[in-house]
Design a protein that fits this description.
about 180 residues, alpha+beta, five-stranded antiparallel beta sheet, 4 helices, about 35% strand, globular
């Protein structure tokens, strides 16, 4: 009886070892799917005139925003809310953002509904007035309604048109949690 059990155990061991999965040459040459680790910033807003918004990003607070670390998104104006989505290059881990609200000097008021920042499976979302929790409006370049998220781009006293907002330390702290 012991011999039969020993023989059976030995047979099962040989069977298990012999049943390992063979990987075909085609499976070996398949590229490994790379994880999408790009930041996505989505602004949901009502922007009535055609325009082009620009998003700058940087890692250090003291460093200036640079054109090489920015992207433009051109879009058609609509009377309804629309998503304006910026997808940063892979492996960029920004700590600060600057959002420029267009180049169209005839732009009407802009209603910001929400801003969402996604990285991997994590998200920061600012809905309605929470937008002001994370972004400071440059009031020299835009009028802001503190009771709503209506922004009105304007020409400065110097005659320039560059309506901008920039992220604050509150968003910096949330971004640090997002990338960890």
């Amino acid at each position: 009886m012991k011999t039969n059990n020993l023989f059976l155990a030995f047979f099962m061991l040989i069977t298990l070892i012999g049943c390992k999965k063979e990987v075909s040459e085609q499976e070996q040459n398949q590229p490994v799917e790379k994880l999408d680790n790009a930041f996505t910033v989505t602004l949901n807003a009502v922007v009535k005139q055609d325009d082009s918004f620009q998003l700058y990003y940087k890692d250090l607070d003291e460093a200036p925003y640079e054109e090489k670390n920015s992207m433009f998104i051109e879009f058609k104006g609509k009377a309804e809310p629309q998503d304006i989505t910026f997808k940063l290059p892979q492996d960029e881990l920004p700590s600060f953002f600057r959002l420029d609200f267009g180049t169209n000097k005839a732009q009407e008021e802009i209603l910001v509904n929400s801003l969402k920042i996604s990285y991997l499976d994590k998200t920061i979302e600012a809905k309605g007035l929470d937008f002001y929790k994370y972004f400071v409006v440059n009031e020299a370049t835009m009028d802001k309604d503190s009771l709503t998220t209506v922004l009105k781009p304007k020409i400065t006293k110097e005659g320039t048109y560059d309506p901008i907002t920039y992220s604050n330390m509150e968003l910096y702290n949330e971004l640090q949690k997002l990338i960890k």
